[in-house]
Design a protein that fits this description.
Structural class: alpha+beta
CATH topology: L-fuculose-1-phosphate Aldolase
Low-confidence stretches: none
CATH architecture: 3-Layer(aba) Sandwich
Strand content: 15-25%
CATH superfamily: Class II aldolase/adducin N-terminal domain
Order of helices and strands: HEEEEEHEHEHHEEH
Distance between the termini: 38 Å
CATH class: Alpha Beta
Number of domains: 1
Shape: globular
Helix content: 25-40%
């Protein structure tokens, strides 16, 4: 099990190392900051999910990790990943990124990644009131509509909720390839 823990941590390091020196990546960091979460193959709760403690912020125009990579430190992206894995056990990583409408349009027009919009206002009231239910709802809603978990699930936000892109991948190499496409598509490289 220790080897699997190290593998997940090293893959998060690899993803972070890819974009941490790209100044323009700051344009993809949302106000709530970004994170990379990676799951153990047998993860059943957030203790099986590694992420960067304190998330990734922008310092001196570059993305900067606020803490170390640890298991059990993510809540938001951990819930996304745990729910996505219920439908597709091949998914092991997720990142949350800043939403921009032109960005989504380019991705759709170039047909480079699969994506799906979720409209938060369609979330049933009883789930809106339930703590920590939105991430599970949006994954299930997406899967019910598409039959798969796409590369990107995005939304335009809601009252008090920042618009967001969620990028899913199987491993570090897959995530880096998708980030390269996103950076090219956003004209920020």
């Amino acid at each position: 099990m220790i080897n699997q823990h190290l593998t997940v941590i090293n893959q998060i390091k690899e993803i972070y190392a890819y974009f941490s020196s790209i100044k323009a990546f700051r344009n993809l960091v949302p106000e709530v900051r970004t994170n990379i979460s990676g799951a153990l193959s047998n993860a059943t709760n957030k203790n099986g999910i590694a992420a960067i403690e304190g998330r990734i912020t922008v310092i001196g125009d570059y993305p900067k990790a606020c803490g170390d990579i640890k298991f059990g430190v993510s809540d938001h992206t951990a819930r996304l990943l745990l729910t996505a894995r219920k439908f597709d056990a091949e998914i092991h990583f997720v990142m949350n990124l800043k939403y921009e409408s032109f960005f989504i349009e380019k991705i759709e027009n170039q047909n480079i990644l699969s994506l799906r919009e979720i409209q938060r206002e369609k979330q049933p009231d009883h789930l809106k009131k339930k703590e920590h239910s939105t991430m599970q709802w949006l994954i299930k809603e997406c899967y019910d509509e598409m039959g798969v978990i796409p590369d990107i699930i995005w939304d335009k936000g809601a009252m008090g909720k920042e618009p967001m892109i969620r990028l899913f991948s199987k491993n570090a190499e897959d995530m880096i390839s998708k980030l390269e496409l996103l950076l090219e598509c956003s004209n920020v490289i």
